[in-house]
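Researcher: Batch entry, complex prediction.
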Amino acid sequence: MTQYIAKRLLGLLPTLLLVGLLVFLFVHILPGDPARLAAGPDANPATVELVRKDLGLDRPLPQQFVRFVNGVLHWDFGRSIRTKRPVSSEIGDRFMPTFWLTMWSMVWSVLIGMTIGILSAVWRNRWPDRLGMTLAVSGISFPAFALGMVLMQFFSVQLNWLPTVGDDTWRHYILPSITLGAAVAAIMARFTRSSFVDILGEDFIRTARAKGLDERRVVVKHGLRNALIPVVTMMGLQFGFLLGGSIVVEKVFNWPGLGRLLVDAVDMRDYPVIQALVLLFSLEFILINLIVDVLYGLINPTIRYR
Amino acid sequence: MGDEPLAALPTAQPLITDERVRTPWSEFWRKFKRQRVAMVAGAFVIVLVVLAIVAPWIVPFDAETFFDYDQLNARPSARHWFGVDALGRDIYSRILMGARISLAAGFLSVTVGAIIGTLLGLIAGYREGWWDRVIMRVCDVLFAFPGILLAIGIVAILGGGMANVIVAVAVFSIPTFARLVRGNTLALKHLTFIEAARSLGATDRTIVFRHIFPGTIAAVIVYFSLRIGTSIITAASLSFLGMGAQPPTPEWGAMLDAARSDMLTAPHEAIFPALAIFVTVLAFNLLGDGLRDALDPKIERR
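Model: Structure tokens for the complex:
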């Protein structure tokens, strides 16, 4: 197992390096002079030159890349053009709200999605299935920002049950996490259903039924574990979706998280922040996929020691 | 959202039952006809495309330059079917014109992504070796960015605007198609009919385009339809974030963003664009589901 994880970690290195290279080049393929951008619009040529030297932009590209990688390894992403604070502390302030929002969305959407998926598979082509799948296809068709606006209008403005914006109490988490998780719940439901339908048609399920197990045991003990394998993979892929979706949802609910930081940074052309955030988001995504692969090995013994 | 994996479909196996010859096309139509929901969705998509094409000639008011200052934020009425927005523009006209933008964005970006992705997938799957490694590594890197993040990154480089949004969405469609087609190509290339073609002296190009490509096309069509829904949502999301279509362009996502400040007094300004996106994407998703059920040979359950 340890060997497997180590092998997977090593295999990630080329991808990480390529992602790093892309993010590094990002500043250089932008139209305009990065030193000029960092110095600000009113800087005179002398200041621009000073900034260029200060940021090391006058050195050859490979040297700059080494410097960049070194900085990243020491958690140094430079300073935000907008606030002049170190990018690492900008991100540090915003990390937790986004992290918890994503986690809560994941937890509830997986639970609800899998429940709907299993119920739909068990009662295939009957009304629970039709209802569940109608909900699911609607869920993937309704854009998150529109759902957020509707939920906020209804529960916060009209009924006044929940707060509108901010992240102060747990009540603030309810609407944003529902908004963010809805599409994922829908995808999980559809995927769980199709995975479960396949499993329920297998011979070992017939055997389990034939030996007289009651239906609940057949579904939970024999079906669930096998159906879980593709579902776990799907879960990992959906994390990326949540990370991306949080950008939109955070704008709707004015959430003080990384997504809003990114949107503001793109608006203000705050390149060091964009660079760091893109790197962070993709790193998170890669790590989650690794964790999923390991989990996959735990659930499915046949691929464990490869 | 292409979630269920799709198997490669070997085409061209004419079986003579009854008197009628069953071609892959008639087989598809026979199965697709039974999917009532998908048929309705398909018809709706066609209507939508026609509406989008003729929109400039049928809108009652100009979507960008007509201002009815007496009826700011007015509710729906006989004169303004979907009401009036905060600047006095007719929402019905703007939704119709917005259909052009959203459908064009969806179709163009997925078409570009599908063509490039399919070609890359065919090359990677057929050549294997270095080609495969390089192409799949690039796909891994593209996959390492969550979709919308990649799009935001590209928009940050190229600048805002709908054209750049289309490029951005196309780029993140590429790896999906490349992986799908590569997998199917790998499965197909060792089959006997490919071997037969090769032994007859067919060139690589003939084998790839005449024999392997038709076998992957069913899967590509299904992903194409499902992908359009995702792309329309992504493009609208970028406009909602202020990175896509700029005012006064009647893009649905941008309209929703503009409606946020007036949610309390004029909720209809948000409801109609939201419904427009929902119904359009829903139609594409239902159509895609129906196509999958009709084209996937594994699904012959009913």
